[in-house]
Amino acid sequence: MKVYFAGEGYIDILCKYTHCRKLTSYLSKKEIDQYWKLTRKQIFLDSGAFSAFTIGSLIDIDEYIKYIQENKEKFEVYATLDVIGDYEATERNTRYMQKCGLQPLPVFHYKSPVEYLEKLVNEYDYIALGGLVPLALKQQKLRNWLDFCFSVIRDRAKVHGFGVNALWAWKRYPFYSVDATSWLKSAKFGEKSYKDQRLNRFYTETVNYKERVEKDLLRYSKLAEDVTKLWEKRGIVWD
Predict the structure, then answer these.
(1) What angle do CA 45, 102, 236 make, to 5 degrees?
(2) Residue 195: how many CB atoms within 10 A of its CB?
(3) pTM over 0.85, yes/no
(4) Distance between CA atoms of 76 and 73, rounded to whole angstroms?
(5) pLDDT (tens digit, 0 to 9) for every residue of the chain, 239 residues total?
(6) CA distance 186 to 200
């Protein structure tokens, strides 16, 4: 299983490890250029539609297409420009990108109709499941939805899980690839407080958060290796 490390920053840490893969949003062009310049490693390009949606913004599809065409060598995979909550508009965007000579990764969103999922599985050998981030803290809902999706997909297509960070999900479903931002959580906690019981006073200790981020990066990489071996034992081998 491939893990693409998402989120901005800490490129210096990612660059240290040749086995690590990067997912970057179209909205982060400077980071894409920086990472490519330092590594010459191809990136998984996310359209940034979800981020744009949350701030009430729109992405121009022609500009997105032009950017991919002009920087195609930088991308291992590039996702379609999805429209949150509108699977028909998402499909139109996918078709339009194909007419422009591109081969975007199609995306099936949470609560889209099963007929559309069937259509994607019959037409493509690699698809993505999106709109799952809001379910991250609702494990039963996420489990029910993924159970449904994989009951339709079965072994007919490779699947990318956008924002699927949980180990239980990696073990339960045969994802071909996922992307994770959880490796950056340590960076949010650069200090920790503790209480000296004897003196009844609180102290703050500075933590080397970059070191913690790096450890989390390697931990996720190791978990992905273990999950890959687990699925190999179950008879599923990713190329």
Answers:
(1) 65
(2) 10
(3) yes
(4) 8
(5) 999 999 888 899 999 998 899 999 999 999 999 999 999 999 999 999 877 777 677 899 999 999 999 999 999 999 999 998 899 999 999 999 999 999 999 999 999 999 999 999 999 999 999 999 888 888 999 999 999 999 999 999 999 999 999 999 999 999 999 998 888 876 655 544 444 555 566 555 555 778 888 989 999 999 999 999 999 999 999 87
(6) 28
Rounded to whole angstroms, how far apart are CA atoms 105 and 126? 7
The full set of domain ranges for the chain reads 2-233
Tokens 């931990």 — which residue? 219
Residue written as tokens 């690699």? Answer: 126
- Which residues, 6 or more positions from 121, have their beta carbon under 8 angstroms from its beta carbon? 127, 152, 153, 156, 157
Options 3.90.420.10, 3.20.20.140, 3.20.20.105, 3.40.50.1820; CATH for 2-233 is: 3.20.20.105
150, two tokens: 């994989």
